[in-house]
Specification:
Number of domains: 2
Number of strands: 6
Low-confidence stretches: none
Strand order of the largest sheet: 1-2
Largest sheet: 2 strands, antiparallel
Order of helices and strands: EEHHEHEHEHHE
Helix content: 25-40%
Mean pLDDT: 77
Length: 177
């Protein structure tokens, strides 16, 4: 079986596939019209979706997310209760270098999809930015801010350079790190 990009499956060793191959195969399956039973089973089994480290989610992975949650907004479906999507990420922790325009485009496209989908289904959409870190203390956060104050490091952030939009406040300011 060939992936969506036309290549044969990549294997890393004894029957193992790479993450890229698994993403391609999953996307192929979810986009295959003859796999309606897969969508039916997923619709009955997925109640809540958490996307952790959303800043490192690729366009293909976002396409998978959209396919998984499309029935969340299609009407009553298999559920009598409201289902939820929760995405968490921090641009400053991204392991992928994306230019500001790329990061902004990805964020705008995903936020737009979720906001429009909610509005079309007459559901409440809440976009919340958390400005407090309970993991790191003020010394760590100041060091991170100093790194991202440099123009070349700030290129991957969506907040304008010099703005407070990219700053995070320590939620436990009495601890050093």
């Amino acid at each position: 079986m060939r992936s969506s990009n036309g290549s044969a499956p990549r294997r890393t060793g004894a029957g193992c596939s790479t993450t890229r191959t698994l993403i391609d195969k999953t996307l192929d399956l979810l986009n295959n019209v003859s796999a309606a039973w897969v969508h039916y089973k997923l619709d009955r089994g997925i109640h809540h979706l958490l996307i952790d480290e959303a800043q490192d989610t690729s366009p293909k992975q976002w396409a998978i997310v959209k396919a998984l949650v499309s029935e969340f907004f299609a009407g009553a479906g298999a559920h009598e209760w409201q289902r939820t999507i929760f995405a968490v990420g921090d641009e400053k922790q991204s392991i992928l270098f994306v230019s500001r325009s790329g990061a902004a485009r990805i964020r705008q496209k995903c936020d737009g999809f979720f906001q429009t989908s909610h509005q079309d289904a007459e559901l409440k959409f809440i976009a919340t930015e958390f400005k407090h870190s309970f993991r790191s203390g003020p010394n760590i956060l100041k060091a991170v801010d100093a790194v991202f104050a440099r123009v070349e490091a700030h290129k991957g952030l969506t907040a304008p350079a010099g703005s407070a939009g990219a700053r995070v406040v320590a939620g436990r300011s009495s601890r050093p790190g």
